[in-house]
TrEMBL record:
It comes from Virgibacillus massiliensis. Keywords: NAD, Oxidoreductase. Belongs to the 3-hydroxyacyl-CoA dehydrogenase family. Residues 3-182 form the 3-hydroxyacyl-CoA dehydrogenase NAD binding domain. Pfam families: 3HCDH, 3HCDH_N. This is Putative 3-hydroxybutyryl-CoA dehydrogenase. SUPFAM superfamilies: 6-phosphogluconate dehydrogenase C-terminal domain-like, NAD(P)-binding Rossmann-fold domains. The keyword NAD applies. The record marks 139 as: Important for catalytic activity. NAD(+) binds at residues 8-13, 31, 91, 96, 118, 142, 272. One of its GO terms (molecular function) is NAD+ binding. The gene is mmgB_2.
Length: 281
């Protein structure tokens, strides 16, 4: 289990790849976009350097991690020899299903296929493969190198062995794992999306400013980050996709805030676009 592939080199994918690399795994990081893949390489190496300079990892770890990272734009080449694949692409069920069909074809029969989805059904994804017992959701949190939790989400046919292996892998990354039975949104996304959506509605209604809503949650309820700050970090387009999925599957209480929809239409996507609920320019 020391050879893994991460499919998707965006914010989550490069964070997951970093976590595996510093934990002694050989990591194949794949993305169809060469520019995104090259940017991920730069970001991972800069994070390794910062972690070393700040005393979080030693010289041996940073050297091994850089050697352990392999960047590959061809999906088949990236996954054909590994024992675990973690998919970390956009939260679009059609895209995930297409990738898992390819992974099922390219990977060894023994390879475990994990999705980093925060809301979507590992059962539905697994049903597109010939190995549903080896398909599981392995939900990391952003920023991956700081966040200690992994939700291990069991699909209808996920085997006990697969869940146990993913729990062991989670521990090897220095994370804590919680086991969740599949329902849309799992545990954290259901709660987080509700809180964030209500914060957006309060902002729209003029209850308080974005800064004061976030301060109230941090100082009054001991949240480490305010819900609007967190939405900006995740990406408002990603949050909207999650809300739309939860609205479709769980009903009215997850209807996306009109303000969230308006911001995404305006291109205000949070930190990655330079402006969201806060201005980062």
């Amino acid at each position: 289990m020391k050879q893994v592939a991460v499919v998707g080199a965006g914010i989550m994918g490069k964070g997951i790849a970093y976590a595996f690399a510093v934990s002694g795994y050989t990591v194949m990081l794949n993305d169809v976009n060469d520019q995104i893949l090259q940017a991920a390489k730069t970001d991972i190496e800069q994070l390794l350097d910062r972690s070393y300079n700040n005393g979080f990892i030693n010289e041996e770890t940073i050297s091994e991690a850089k050697m352990n990272m392999i960047y590959e734009s061809d999906l088949e080449s990236a996954v054909k020899h590994v024992n675990l694949v973690v998919e970390a692409v956009l939260e679009k069920i059609e895209l995930k299903i297409d990738i898992f069909k390819k992974l099922d074809h390219y990977c060894k029969r023994s390879t475990i296929l994990a999705t980093n989805t925060s809301t979507m059904s590992p059962t539905e994804i697994a049903a597109q493969t010939n190995r549903p017992e080896k398909v599981v959701a392995m939900h990391f949190f952003n920023p991956v190198h700081k966040m200690k939790l992994i939700e291990v989400v069991r699909g209808l046919e996920t085997s006990d062995e697969t869940v146990d292996v993913i729990k062991e892998v989670s521990l090897s990354l220095g994370k804590e794992a919680v086991e969740v039975n599949e329902l849309p949104g799992f545990v954290t996304s259901r709660m987080n999306c509700l809180i964030g959506n209500e914060a957006m509605n309060m902002l729209m209604e003029g209850v308080a400013s974005a800064a004061d809503i976030d301060k109230a949650m941090k100082l009054g309820l001991n949240h480490p980050m305010g819900p609007l700050e967190l939405a900006d970090l995740v990406g408002l387009d990603s949050r909207l996709r999650n809300m739309e999925y939860l609205y479709q599957t769980l009903g009215e209480k997850y209807r996306p805030s009109p303000l969230l929809t308006k911001y995404v239409k305006a291109g205000r996507l949070g930190k990655k676009s330079g402006i969201g609920f806060y201005d980062y320019r």
